[in-house]
Amino acid sequence: MVDLQGQYARIKDQVSAAMQEVIDTTTFINGPEVQAFQSELEDYLGVKHVIPCANGTDALQVAMMGLGLKPGDEVITADFTFAATVEVIALLGLTPVLVDVDPVTFNIDVAAIERAITSKTKAIVPVHLFGLAAPMDQIMALANEHNLYVIEDNAQGIGAHCADASGKKHKTGTIGHVASTSFFPSKNLGCYGDGGAIFTNDDDLAHTLRGIVNHGMYERYHHDVVGVNSRLDSLQAAVLRAKLPHLDHYNRARREAAAQYTKALSGLAQVVTPTGVCATGMGVCAQCDCHVFHQYTLRLIGVDRDGLVAHLNGLGIPCGVYYPIPLHAQKAYQDERYNEADFGVTNQLVKEVISLPMHTELASDQIAFIASAIKDFINANKSTL
């Protein structure tokens, strides 16, 4: 699914030198590599503050802690995403409110958000799922109307852009009150272990967040706020510094691969290819920067998905199903408040989606081979559908 070895081969000298520098200086925690990466990422994103931390889940948790959300406060987020998004809400004693998603973009449905807002609602967590920017302009307007915080889950979307009502583009993760991201190795900007970061343009919030990630300390042994131990180590920062200058190239390569996939699969009525939403309307092309294709995810209509997975695997082609069980149906997050009728899109998507290999090293002949394998399976099984 992700060719990290091929990617590493292209930047081996840069990564090795950066890591060796950390080892030689033994500045493993909060060393100069961390500070330099923080500054460089702030410049790349155009955001005032980047607060590095240990992983993407911690980033979400710390963001919510920094906003001062209290047990019982309701936080609205998407039902169709990875569990970390709802996990931290529940962990902090907040009340998760899961809502349905859009059938075209897979991102949170703004109308569903609006229907879910109550007097107890304090925050919205949009997820830029699979690398496609959520409709932030609409979400921010709704949040402003109801005096709510917006916490962007940008774990899959770093480098993507979102246009506001005037057409001006902003990088995802810089639009809400605060945002989180993950540097898990398979991400578009991934380190060689765990890592994460929080973004904000709010000076006071940034100060609070910096204390929280460091045991609540601003001065050694003076604990001013309740904190956690969540730091990005210097070795991982060194890797990320080496990769950050390549991020736009990585994202372009993913968009180009996505465009090739879409073209190769365009003749199949049983396959719905992913779409982007940008200033020019619906569609995906190599030039559209609202989608960075962390995943290339199809919908299969009337296709035996398990059979296709087995067929692809038999040809040595990896694939994935993200995510096979809705969050509202997970044992940990079931709640009698939920009505199945409110999750019609999610309940359908979990039966239909399949993600194909997507990474910076994909070659045209590999894409053609994968697309051909999908066509062969569908054509061979038409009579049984």
Can you characterise this structure?
- This protein has two domains: 4-245, Type I PLP-dependent aspartate aminotransferase-like (Major domain) (Aspartate Aminotransferase, domain 2, 3-Layer(aba) Sandwich), CATH 3.40.640; 248-384, Alpha-Beta Complex (Aspartate Aminotransferase, domain 1).
- Helices cover 38% and strands 16% of the residues.
- The protein is built from twelve helices and 16 strands.
- The strands form five sheets. Strands 1-9-8-5-4-2-3 form a seven-stranded mixed sheet, sandwiched between helices. It has a three-stranded antiparallel sheet with strand order 12-15-16.
- A hairpin with a 2-residue loop joins strand 13 and strand 14 (281-283).
- Residues 277-286 have low confidence and may be disordered.
Q: What's the number of extended β-strand segments? A: 16
Structural class based on helices, strands and sheet pairing: alpha/beta
Q: What's the CATH superfamily of the largest domain, by name?
A: Type I PLP-dependent aspartate aminotransferase-like (Major domain)
The share of residues in extended strands comes to: 15-25%
Q: Helicity level, as a percent range?
A: 25-40%
Q: Gyration radius, to the nearest Å?
A: 21 Å
Distance between the first and last residues' Cα: 28 Å
pLDDT < 50 runs, ≥5 residues: 277-286
Order the strands across the largest sheet as they lie in space.
1-9-8-5-4-2-3
In the CATH hierarchy, what is the architecture of the largest domain at level 2? 3-Layer(aba) Sandwich
**Strand and helix order:** HHEHEHEHEHEEEEEHEEHHEEEEHHEH
Mean pLDDT comes to 94
Largest beta-sheet details: 7 strands, mixed
Write down the domain tally: 2
CATH fold assignment of the largest domain: Aspartate Aminotransferase, domain 2
Overall geometric form: globular
Q: Give the helix tally.
A: 12
The CATH class of the largest domain, by name, is: Alpha Beta
